[in-house]
Amino acid sequence: MKTKHMYKAYLKPGKEESLKRFHPWVFSGAIARIEGQPEEGDIIEVYTAQNEFIAKGHCQIGSIAIRVLSFRQDEKIDRDFWRRKLQAAYDMRRNLHIGGNPANDTYRLVHGEGDNLPGLVVDIYGRTAVMQAHSPGMHVDRMEIADALADVMGDTIDSIYYKSESTLPYKADLYPENGFLKGSNTDNVATEYGLKFHIDWLKGQKTGFFVDQRENRALLERYAHGRTILNMFCYTGGFSVYAMRGGARLVHSVDSSAKAIDLTNKNIALNFPDDTRHTAYAEDAFKYLDRMENGFYDLIVLDPPAFAKHRDALRNALQGYRKLNAKAFEKIKPGGLLFTFSCSQAVDKDHFRTAIFTAAATTGRNVRILHQLTQPADHPVNIYHPEGEYLKGLVLYVE
């Protein structure tokens, strides 16, 4: 096994400024030279052009060349390091009373840069932790991380599932396999605010569930009573289940994926067996919006997948948001509520609001902002890494 910390990257003059402000990424363009030949995922120390140590982290191929794990030269990246970082993440959630009780055993334990662990995501579903690597370094260190996670979580979990087949850069040639690193668990039902959900960590998107919309689903429940609701891009039907509990008159769930519709129906049946208020449709969003009757729905949820994965797709993404929201503004009943979201990191709050403003203006409807929504406290944003604020949402009143 290779000795860690044997590699050094030297920055071009002046390129250490963002690191002095504790930003956790080193871009490839900032590096003047690298000493040694590190492989993806190796630990590399970062020095300024004046040969001063500034940070250390995982190296990788791509525009983000190094993801910083520590700004201290004497801090070893070992099992103790992972345990300390995971303990800090766990303590923060406990401090905020997130998770850890039978009515709410679904939460995010590690949110990458937001928990000073760039490239790592860990979601807790009941007694299973689902771990996901978004960087080669986290993949390489996965067993050490899993051991540390088992130490920190103790008997609150009995299995750790690794799900990184679709999240690691394909250029890395890492061939990750999804599977249990510790234990095994076939009970895939987790509870969120007293509602039960089947979590598809084997084949589902993300880690199997969109934990980040928890507080926004709870908000929708408060407004659902007596309304006719459309949940567009429903995936597992989270918003639909909350709407049902909130006393909605009727709920329609729409997703282009038949598998998602199947999962939505299962989640509705789990909480509201034989309830005739809900119907799900496997159909393209735009086609459905085109054919739906004007004024039929008085609450619409638009929670599309990321329209822009990268900055260069921004223009098309904003066009997509405008088109989608304009349709909803056109069709929603007067006095209706629109819950509209973007989970694209490349689309910032201002871009998103401008797209929604433009959509409203083209339809001429009178629209007021009631709430500005973001991700919940278990998806914290590192103050030195504002890019971590990826979820944007607005609740709009449409006259």
The neighbouring-strand order within the major sheet is 16-15-14-17-18-20-19
User: Number of helical segments?
Assistant: 10
Overall pLDDT level: 93
Distance between the termini: 66 Å
Strand content: 25-35%
CATH class of the largest domain: Alpha Beta
Low-confidence spans: none
Counted beta strands: 20
- CATH topology call of the largest domain: Rossmann fold
Radius of gyration: 22 Å
Order of helices and strands: EHEEEEEHEEEHHEEEEHEHEHEHEHEHEE
Q: Please, how many domains?
A: 3
Largest sheet: 7 strands, mixed
Structural class determined from secondary elements: alpha/beta
User: From the coordinates shown, what is the CATH architecture of the largest domain?
Assistant: 3-Layer(aba) Sandwich
| CATH superfamily descriptor of the largest domain | Vaccinia Virus protein VP39
Task: Work out the helicity level.
Answer: 25-40%
Q: Main traits of this protein?
A:
globular; 399 residues; 7-stranded mixed β-sheet; Rossmann fold; 6-stranded mixed β-sheet; Archaeosine Trna-guanine Transglycosylase, Chain: A, domain 4; 10 helices; 3 domains; 28% helix; Transcription Regulator spoIIAA; alpha/beta; 20 strands
Walk me through what this model shows.
It is a single chain. The protein contains 10 helices and 20 strands. With 399 residues, it is an alpha/beta fold. The strands form 4 sheets. A 7-stranded mixed sheet has the order 16-15-14-17-18-20-19, with helices on both faces. A 6-stranded mixed sheet has the order 2-6-5-4-1-3. It starts with 6 loop residues before the first strand and ends with a strand. It has helices spanning 17-20, 79-95, 136-140, 142-153, 214-223, 238-245, 258-271, 285-291, 314-331, 349-363; strands at residues 7-11, 25-27, 31-35, 43-47, 53-59, 64-70, 106-111, 120-125, 128-133, 159-162, 179-182, 189-192, 195-198, 228-232, 250-255, 278-282, 299-302, 336-342, 367-373, 392-398. The protein has 3 domains: 7-70, PUA domain (Archaeosine Trna-guanine Transglycosylase, Chain: A, domain 4), CATH 2.30.130; 79-193, RNA methyltransferase domain (HRMD) like (Transcription Regulator spoIIAA), CATH 3.30.750; 210-398, Rossmann fold (3-Layer(aba) Sandwich), CATH 3.40.50.150. The protein is globular and about 65 Å long.
